[in-house]
Amino acid sequence: MTIRKAILFAAVLFAATPVSIALAEGDAAAGEKAFNKCKACHTAEQGGANRVGPNLHGVVGRKAGTVDGYSYSKPVKEGDVTWTEDNLDKYLTDPKGFIPGNKMAFPGIKSEDERENIIAYLKQNS
């Protein structure tokens, strides 16, 4: 195979790849440790209390704004967001940018690895 054919083949494969690439699997154990920065406001255990933020047990796959007993901001409550891994990644990157007007006073997590690990931890608790 010539170099041109190899490049063309790679380009065709890349073009055929779905636009929404799934997140790489994170490390749940590392995510549990990274979740420490979230614990001031959130719990993740089944039956855990709501704090400044809602309990996050079962968050993966759940519609945003639906934890009983938690008072959500209007944009979260009235939005149409389901917490997929992709949406969690976007939210953890930039909470105010992903859901403008929400009340989460956290600037986000810039490290992709750290976000993947936290999502793996949350997924383990979902």
TrEMBL record:
UniProtKB keywords: Electron transport, Heme, Iron, Metal-binding, Signal, Transport
Single GO MF descriptor: heme binding
Coiled coil region boundaries: none
Transmembrane spans: none
Alphabetical list of Gene3D superfamilies matching this protein: Cytochrome c-like domain (1.10.760.10)
PROSITE patterns: CYTC
Domain Cytochrome c stretches: 26-126
This protein's name: Cytochrome c
Source organism: Skermanella aerolata
